[in-house]
TrEMBL record:
This is Fibronectin type 3 and ankyrin repeat domains 1 protein-like isoform X1. Transmembrane segments: none annotated. Keywords: ANK repeat. Pfam families: Ank_2, Ank_5. ANK repeats lie at residues 146-178, 179-211, 287-319.
Length: 366
């Protein structure tokens, strides 16, 4: 067996450590080649050899990161996507080595997160979206802090090229969030007609209900989004929207919900669109209120006038036996009462009422 001296000139030169598993925060260094070479040099295959591993710091100095008898070491707590330089030597009674050649190893880039995807979508950075989806690090339905899926976020900003990418990578166009809302419901409740069209063309289910029991059409009605509702109903044969679909909380059809929830400025126009497309004016909610009764209770004079002009039944009683006219009298809205009086006069059910305009003068209601 050759004797190895300990002077610097006689120190054995060993190979650098091998690279093992990498992550964005760790590097595994394997010493098997180092140890095999050292044992072959000292002639003792069973020699206990102590390994010393150093890493170059940011200021250029070598720092010890490991010493021991193991065949490998995992250096953790590192920065992502950064290069680290290492050298190794061994020391025992049988052999002493010089420092090995330097090996430089780079940590992996940190995996993408859901936040990365949502930020890229909001910025409209389609190339970044492509990169993130291609990495496989992030599910295409990942949610943000509001529980919006990536498809919802893209849809709210009408970024259809990004929506196409998300669907190609497996995004679910009918995925429900914690409140049960689908991307279609989110779009319909925000008057985003083009997004509604895109989602329907890509398989969105028209009649799905959220946890409040409402479908996309009910949300569009509540917002007074006339164009969205009209498009839904004009395309009902193709996509399955239902003008008489009942939401399950109050049992209201779109027309009844229009009377109850739609802002006054849009209620008349929306009711006209619904009625023109065949909405049933006699449909009753769970409280047995028709659209006319809801319009009275909600004090919407123009809507009451609309229903009366379109032949709504003024005799139909509610569960308490009250007619619409009796309810109108209890509500006490002057404009609504005039609408009923004019309708009753038109039907010649009562003598034409008179109202005082000035003292000692009476005028007839026209």
């Amino acid at each position: 067996m050759a004797t190895v001296g300990t002077s610097e000139a006689n120190l054995v030169k060993l190979p650098p450590p091998q690279t093992g598993k990498l992550s964005h925060f760790s590097i595994e260094l394997i010493f098997e080649d180092v140890l095999n070479e050292a044992r072959s040099k000292c002639g003792n295959p069973k020699a206990a050899l102590k390994v010393f591993l150093e890493c170059k710091s940011e200021n250029g100095e070598w720092e010890k990161v490991y010493s021991g008898l193991s065949k490998s070491f995992i250096h953790t707590g590192l920065q992502s996507n950064k290069s680290y330089s290492y050298r190794v030597k061994v020391d025992s009674s049988s052999i002493k080595s010089d420092w090995s050649a330097i090996t430089t190893i780079k940590t992996l880039a940190a995996p993408f997160t859901g936040d990365d995807l949502h930020q890229a979508i909001r910025r409209g950075n389609i190339e970044k979206v492509k990169e993130i989806l291609a990495s496989g690090d992030v599910h295409p339905d990942v949610q943000d802090e509001k529980d919006f899926s990536a498809l919802v976020v893209a849809g709210l900003q009408e970024k259809f090229d990004i929506m196409e990418l998300l669907v190609q990578h497996g995004a679910d166009v009918n995925r429900k969030d914690a409140s049960g809302k689908t991307p279609l419901i989110h779009a319909a409740s925000r008057d985003l007609l083009e997004t509604v069209k895109w989602l329907c063309a890509h398989g969105a289910e028209a009649k799905m209900l959220d946890k409040s029991g409402m479908a996309a059409i009910h949300h569009a009605v509540d917002g007074g989004f006339v164009k969205v509702v009209e498009w839904m109903l004009d395309n009902s044969d193709k996509y399955g929207f239902d003008i008489e679909q009942i939401e399950t909380t109050s049992g209201m059809t779109p027309l009844n919900r229009c009377s109850n929830m739609t802002p006054d400025a849009k209620a008349y126009e929306l009711a006209a669109s619904l009625q023109l497309r065949g909405a049933n004016m006699s449909s009753k909610a769970y409280n047995n209120f028709t659209p006319l009764l809801n319009a009275i209770i909600r004090r919407k004079p123009k809507l009451v006038e609309f229903f009366l002009a379109r032949g709504a039944d003024i005799y139909e009683k509610n569960e308490n036996g009250q007619t619409p006219y009796e309810i109108a009298q209890s509500v006490g809205n002057a404009q609504i009462l005039r609408a009923f009086e004019d309708k009753i006069q038109q039907l010649s059910l009562l003598p034409k009422p008179k109202r005082k305009a000035t003292p000692n003068q009476e005028v007839e209601v026209s």
